[in-house]
Amino acid sequence: MKLDLPASMCTGATLDVFTALEAKGGAGCARFVGGSVRNLIMGLPVSDFDLSTQLTPDDTEAALDAAGIRNIPTGKAFGTITAVVDGETYEITSLRRDVETDGRRAVVSFTTDWAEDAQRRDFYLNALYADIRGQVYDPTGKGLEDARARVVRFIGEAEQRIREDYLRILRFFRFSAAYAQTLDAKSLEACIRLRYGIDGLSGERLLQELIKMLVYDGAPTVFNRIWDAGIMSHILPGLRYDPAQSDVLARMVQATSDIERRFMALLAQSYDGLAYFNGHVSAVNDVLSRLRVSNRARQRFESVVKVRRAMEEGYPLRRVLYDYGREAVTDEAYLTHAQTGADLAGPIAAIDNMTVPEFPLTARHLMAAGIEAGPYLGQTLKRIEAEWCAHDFSQTVIDRALDELGKPPKISGE
User: Fold this and answer.
1) How do the pLDDT tens digits run along the chain, 414 residues long?
2) By the 8 A CB rule, do 219 and 213 touch?
3) 3-state DSSP percent of the chain in helix, strand and coil, to 5
4) All domains of the chain, ordered by start, with CATH?
5) How far does CA 240 lie from the centroid of its chain?
6) CA 332 vs CA 62, 149, 150, 283, 301: distances in Å
């Protein structure tokens, strides 16, 4: 099968890389592989121009050096050299066979056999290759079929593919969320049987896959299957699924593309997530630690809890915005919408249109009133700010405080 390659696959930088490799290994020694070819067949946007080559990593480096192309041995032990041309990067991986696998990493050797390289890949629709002339190659004989039918299936024996790398369980669900209409039954059964293998994976790898999966609008349906299948207890250990919350992620996905908000909704599909966001101790903190969720994201989640508590205590919107910021209050509105189906447009409009006051005093003003720098100055500033907030940001509070401190020049505030 031959296709007309889009201009994005035939840039001058791309042609330079292919020319360099073919000068060393002959015509056809390098091909596009995986995502770009799969998406081209499926009529989807094409990106991530990964290449495979019959050259060894040493020969790949030599070929690029001879052509004056900068290259980096990003994963040389596994056959990957990254070429950099005009700011574009190309991951070039030598054809491989797995010598030994332990469910997390593999020991590989290199080959020149395209079919052998294809057989060690995860899914049929990812084992497609195309040369720079547009000729498509399907060594397994099933890649084109699955790409056209939008089916995600493990190559060969599903359990064998999974035992080679248990992260492929999450990849199966991710690719299904992205491309498939339904989950392949045999592949799903294998994922369920071998779900215990997820326990040995690092939190960082799990989080990367979760984030990638949350990008897709098909994620809610797939995540509900993961919960139902008992697999999520290995991905987010300790969290107990609440079937009554099965629509939470779907509503969030429909409302926003913000990944951290979508992740909040995923957590909120569990009893423990409900408790966490309502300010109670739960297993969510342990899960966030295991996944190595960034401090920035954790602070964002914790701010939602604080906003909820303040609103439950009757604080007016302007005060909550002042205390916790517009992002946190907006996050809480989105999560409430996802959990309850409540109107979102009204709260968001109110948040966006509300002017947040700025505290008009600084340490400089108090020092002008005769207070020396030190702990007392900071304490006084905080005391005045607290009273100002408690009285709905009243200028009267500021004026009275300044009068008490010695009547310095009047400071204009809100």
Assistant:
1) 888 888 889 899 999 999 999 999 999 999 999 889 999 999 998 887 899 999 999 999 999 999 999 999 998 888 999 999 988 899 999 998 876 565 556 667 899 999 999 998 999 999 999 999 999 999 999 999 999 999 999 999 999 999 999 999 999 999 999 999 899 999 999 999 999 999 999 999 999 999 999 999 999 999 999 999 999 999 999 999 999 999 999 999 999 999 999 999 999 999 999 999 999 988 999 999 999 999 999 999 999 999 999 999 999 999 999 899 999 999 999 999 999 999 999 999 999 999 888 877 777 777 777 777 778 878 877 888 787 878 778 788 777 877 777 654 455 554
2) yes
3) 55, 10, 30
4) 1-149 (3.30.460.10), 155-235 (1.10.3090.10), 236-356 (no CATH), 363-404 (no CATH)
5) 22
6) 55, 40, 36, 20, 9
219-235 as b/e, with b when 16 or more CB fall inside 10 Å?
bbbbbbbbbebebbbbb
Backbone angles phi, psi at 391, to 5 degrees: -105, 35
- Contact by Cβ (8 Å): 325, 304: no
Whole-angstrom distance between the N-terminal and C-terminal Cα of the chain?
Answer: 70
Residue 25 phi/psi, 5-degree rounding, is -110, 0
Residue 253's region, left for phi above 0, alpha for psi from -120 to 50, else beta, is alpha
Whether the CB-CB separation of 359 and 397 falls below 8 Å is answered with no
- What are the backbone dihedrals phi and psi of residue 212, each rounded to the nearest 5 degrees, phi first? -65, -35
User: How many other β-carbons are positioned within 10 Å of the β-carbon of residue 131?
Assistant: 18
**Taking the alpha carbons of 226, 231, 235, 236 in that order, is the dihedral positive or negative?**
positive
Q: Do 125 and 67 meet the contact criterion of CB atoms below 8 Å apart?
A: no
Closest CA to 129 of 19, 242, 221, 53: 53
CA dihedral of residues 22, 25, 27, 32 (deg, nearest 10): -70
* Cα-based distances in Å from 270 to 78, 126, 250: 39, 33, 14
